[in-house]
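Suppose a colleague, Dr. K., hands you the sequence of a protein chain of 145 amino acids and asks what its three-dimensional shape might be. Before reaching for any lab equipment, you can write down a predicted structure in token form. Begin with the sequence itself:
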Amino acid sequence: MKGRVRKRRGIDMIAKPERVEAALWRNALGNVAAARGTLFSHYARFARAIARDRFLTRRADNHEIGDVEQLASEGLLQAIDRFEPLRAIPFRAFARPRIVGSIANGLGKYSEAIANAGYRRRTERERLKSLMAERQGDATSPLHE
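The predicted structure, expressed as tokens, is then:
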């Protein structure tokens, strides 16, 4: 969302967004569980934007945009639960790495094709290492060259 101005809707048209955000976190100080749904709704568009960005930058595998958005939502909920509003850290800066990490971890576990490709790469490396160890003394080996 760099460079784009977000279209303001509803109460955001008359209120300053940073004050709305501060009010949400002020209300959540007493009980984050009660304010969790409101916070999630407020930041859902942010999480979906990260999901779309990660979906477009990854190579095509066995996942769909809905799967990536679901993982982003999971990361957002984890960030909401772990965020400490009394610290001087903006929530979006705190949440972005957690959302991206949730997407990366989820897709790594989710995609069987990625897991199989990783297994093949590890097996090929191990085979190459064992062949190199056998041919250590033979400098004329094509494998060594």
